[in-house]
Amino acid sequence: MTNNSNNYFSSDFKLGILGGGQLGKMLLYETRKFDIHTKVLEASKEAPCRIACDEFVLGSLMDFDAVYNFGKQVDVLTIEIENINLDALEKLEEEGIKVYPPTKALRTIQNKATQKLFYTDNNVPTADFSRFAYASEIEDAIENGGLELPFVWKAAQFGYDGQGVKVVRSIDDLKELPVGECIAEKMIPFKHELAVIVVRSVSGEVVTYPVVEMEFHPEANQVEYVICPARIDKIVAQKATEIALKVSEEIGHVGILAVEMFQTQEDEILVNEVAPRPHNSGHYSIEASYTNQFEQHIRAILDLPLGKTDSKVAGIMVNLVGADGYTGEVVYENIAEIMAMDGVTPHIYGKKQTRPFRKMGHVTIVDEDIDEARRVAQKVKETIKVISK
Amino acid sequence: MTNNSNNYFSSDFKLGILGGGQLGKMLLYETRKFDIHTKVLEASKEAPCRIACDEFVLGSLMDFDAVYNFGKQVDVLTIEIENINLDALEKLEEEGIKVYPPTKALRTIQNKATQKLFYTDNNVPTADFSRFAYASEIEDAIENGGLELPFVWKAAQFGYDGQGVKVVRSIDDLKELPVGECIAEKMIPFKHELAVIVVRSVSGEVVTYPVVEMEFHPEANQVEYVICPARIDKIVAQKATEIALKVSEEIGHVGILAVEMFQTQEDEILVNEVAPRPHNSGHYSIEASYTNQFEQHIRAILDLPLGKTDSKVAGIMVNLVGADGYTGEVVYENIAEIMAMDGVTPHIYGKKQTRPFRKMGHVTIVDEDIDEARRVAQKVKETIKVISK
Fold first, then answer.
1. Is B112 annotated as ligand-binding?
2. ipTM score of complex
3. Measured between beta carbons, which residues in chain B are less than 8 angstroms from residue A300?
4. Residue range(s) defining the domain that contains residue A162
C-alpha cells in the first residue's frame, strides 16, 4: 500500500494519459470519481477525451518531442493505446517520470513478432509461427515448404480494430497483404477463445478477473459476445488463469494486462496476444464487477490497493459495429427498444460517422442468471442496428 | 416509448443542465456514456461540472436573463438543484423548450411552506406545521399557545446541506434563526427515516427504487448510513412506496423524485420533503443498482424507456463530511486503507477546501450480504477522516 496516497487526491498531482480515444474516455470517468487531475495527449481534436480531462494537448503519440514534452509535465504517465513513441517514454522514465506500464513491457508487446518470440523464450504456450521482415518473403516460404496454408497473417506493428489480422487461405490472398514486417501463425481450430485480465500494482499486488469467453458467430467467424464468466470447465479456467499470471509476471507490466488465449480441442491453453491497458474483453466489468477495469487500472498505476474483481452478476458484452452497406452520419436504430430490455446499458462512443464494421460503441447485458443474460444479448444483437442517415 | 429517440444520440440535440455542482457532475458521466451533447449553466467557474460538459456557461441560476438566454439554446432543460429562477423557466416552457421537471412541479417544491400546504391539500400524510411570514412571529405564536416547544424550524426557501433546518428547544434558540419566511414543524419521534426514489418519464412510465433507510448516530442524531434495502417490515415498505407514488402523481414531476419520509413509532408514514432531481439517498445506486439514479434521470427526461431499479447487491452509503476542527486545504486521511476493504468505492467531489461538516464526497459499500456491508461501512466510517493540511 502506498504511503502517500493522499497526494493523488490533491490539485498538485497530475496524471498523464497517452491517447484520447474511447478507452481514455472511460478511464476519465474514474479519474473524475476520484477527482484526479488529468492531462491527455492525442492527435485528433475530435477525440472522445477532448472533454472530461482537465487539460487536452494536441500532438502525435508517435512523435518523440510531443510525447517527451507532454510527459515532463505530469507525475504519472499511462496509456490507452500501445502505439506510442517508446524512445520518448524510455527517456522520461530515466528522468524520473513514473511510466505505467513500463517502457520495457511495452517494447515486448508493441511489436507482435517480438511478443511471440517473448512467449517462446519464456515457455509460454502459443501457436507456432514464422516471422517475416517483408510480406513478400511469405510466398517463398510457402514454395519452399516452410509454411503451410491456411495461416493467420498478422502485421507486426500498429494493427487496430481487426485490421492487421487476416486469414490467408490461398496464394491469391497474399496479394492483399501490406508489405511490412509480419508473422504467419498456425491456425488453431479452438474450442473457445478466452481472456483473463490480470492487474498488477506498482508495489506488486496482483489480482485476476474471472475468465471470459468470446462466443463466435457460427458462420461469420466473428466475435459476437464476450461472456463473464466463461462457460467452461473449472480446471480449464484455472489453467488459463495460471498462464495469464505467468505472462503477467514475465512481462512485468503495471496496470491492466488483458491476456487473450485459445482453448484448443485438447483443452490446451495457447496465448494469442496481450494488451497492457483496459481492453474490450473487460468492458462488461463496468456493469457486472465490484471494481471495473478502468478504476482498477487507476488503482494499480497510482499504487492504491486493488479492488475486488468478483462479479455482482453475470455480464455479457456485445460490440456495436457499423452495419455493412452504411457509410455516413450515424443513426442508432432501435436504441430505445434495447434500453427497454432489463439490464441493458448501451455505451455510445461518440463517433459521428459510421462505416462498415467500425467500432461505434458496445452494449452490456447483466443478469443474475447467465442464460437469461445470453438470451437478452441475442435480442439486443437482433434489434439494434448502426446505420447512416 | 419515444418515437424519435435517435435524435438524442446525434450532434444536433442539446441537453441543458441548470447547476454545475456534484450532482451535475455525476449526471455528466451518464450523458457521456450515451454521447449526449450537454451545456451547463453555473455561477461558479470552480464548479465540478466545469469539465466533462460540452459547453460551460457562467451565470446565476436565480437571474432571469441568465436562465432564459441559456434555456433558449438547448432542446431539453433539466436541473441539479431546485434554486432556480422559475419565471424564466416558465417563459421557456411557454416558448416550447422542454423543461423537466416542469416549472409547476418546481413551484410546489421550491418553497417549503408551499410544499407542506400541497401535502395537506392533497391528503398526503405529513407532520403538523405552522407557517410564518417572518421568524419574529414565532415567539408570539408560542406565547399565545399556538405553537409548542420543541419544534423543527425550516426556512421556506434556499436551504441546502442541512442549513435551513434547526431544532428549536427553547425561546433562546429563536434568536439564532434567520428572519425570513419559515415553517415550524412538529417533531416526529420516528422509528426510521426512509426514502423512496420515484422516476417518471415524459410519456408517463413510472418506476420506483427499493425503500432505503437512513440510520442515525445514536447520540449525534445525524444520518450516518443510507442503507438499501431498508431493514423494515414489508408492509411498511409497501406503504412507503404507495405514498411516494401518490406524491409523485400529484406533483407531476418528470425525472427523479426523491421522497423522504418518517416511519413513526406507530408505523405511520409521514412525508418529510421531496427533491425533484437525483438525490443523496440514491447515490448507493451507482454501485448497487441495475440502473443508477443519474442514468435513470436522463432516461426519464429524454423519454427513453426506464431501466430496471432492482439492486444487484446490498448497498450502503456514507457521506464524507469535513471533520470538526479542520478548515483549509483538504486531505483524505486513510483513503487508501478504506480502498483496501472489499466493495468500497470513494467518490471525491473535488472541493479543494474543507470545513467542519462540509460535504466533500461519499463512499459506497456493496456486498451480497447486507450485514457484512453494514460492518464494512462502520469500518469505513471509523477509518477515513476528512481533515486539512
1. yes
2. 0.93
3. none
4. 128-186
